[in-house]
Amino acid sequence: MNENVLNKLKILAESAKYDVSCSSSGTVRSNKPGMLGNTVGGWGICHSFAEDGRCISLLKVMLTNYCIYDCAYCINRRSNDLPRATLSVSELVDLTMEFYRRNYIEGLFLSSGVVRSPDYTMERLVRVAKDLRTVHRFNGYIHLKSIPGASRELVNEAGLYADRLSVNVEIPKEENLKLLAPEKDHKSVYAPMRYIQQGVLESSEERKKHRHAPRFAPAGQSTQMIVGATAETDKDILFLSSALYKGPTMRRVYYSGYISVNTYDTRLPALKQPPLVRENRLYQADWLMRFYQFKVEEIVDDAYPDLDLEIDPKLSWALRHPEQFPVDINRADYEMLLRIPGVGVKSARLIVASRRFSKLGFYELKKIGVVMKKAQYFITCHELPMKTVNEMTPQTVRSLLITKPNKKKVDERQLLLDFHD
């Protein structure tokens, strides 16, 4: 492999690492005659998890880290003095195919700094995906970052070759975005989002008439917000996420705890470490909206604009609403089971299925997978040894359930996200 290209890859993979929206969607591209590879199951190689739990290796790289913008929060901002590189379309295509043939990767996650103009940059990204699909018959996963301000024609073309498209909101409130990135606005972000949504819906209608019509971004779209760089509350962030999820094609909103990469800029907060606990709580709240049938205003409101950092959002909601408990585990409907701390989606389904045959008690629930350490204070069932939240007080239950800080040293970018209760 060309040493010059590998040096470029080292630089551009390093520049790409701050984009957290690198997750395969679980979209399936099975092997086809005349096509190379499928999505089933070093530098720039990241491991992401699909929605079905599979670990997928992606080449995560930028086309270039040169940029015409000078965003305060970005490592690749125009005014930063750092190693710069640009891969040509052919170099990136060859790299992807070489890594794919060696079984290093199962797909490509491609972003870019903006050079010359959004359309010029987007056209180069599209050419990479197009050459991979049409010239090399590449059938792996492709995630393309749509450039804010790119034309509808280029976004539409990108959707014909990419499994997923994404455009990052970055800062939830436009006035704060203008403070840190005066050259950007939300209009240029939301326009490509609409183009992607329209493309997916039009493709879906076309495929009803012609089953072999091309699919448009079959894995939908995603976005990312930076947490902690500006003064937004968790309410601001989650209300925007909720609004985005109402669009039929928005699959994931990613939250990235702000990493202090440009410490010299006085517009930015002086953080010693990224706000990873807050990031974790936002993901848990996001999970409640997507899978647990919670409305955003139940999680955050004017009285509680920020998530509790000591306990998870579902437990926080339960302690604020003791009148909803205890829940009879043998009679409650599925929707109410989902609201019990310690009960996940899988265990709620198993409870509904199992109680048809016999009454469930403490030990049966434990076998099912219910986290009884939490759930015992919010339920009634056969042989329950503990008092409930109403027999005690929410404050007492809270003090019993607050997790003690783990003193074990962990990598600053790694955090265990427990979404099952």
TrEMBL record:
UniProtKB keywords: Iron, Iron-sulfur, Metal-binding, S-adenosyl-L-methionine
Native species: Bacteroides intestinalis
Swiss-Prot/TrEMBL cofactor(s): [4Fe-4S] cluster
Gene Ontology molecular function: catalytic activity; iron-sulfur cluster binding; metal ion binding
NCBIfam families documented for this protein: rSAM_link_UDG
Pfam families in the record: Radical_SAM (PF04055)
Residue ranges of domain Radical SAM core in the record: 63-194
Protein name: Putative DNA modification/repair radical SAM protein
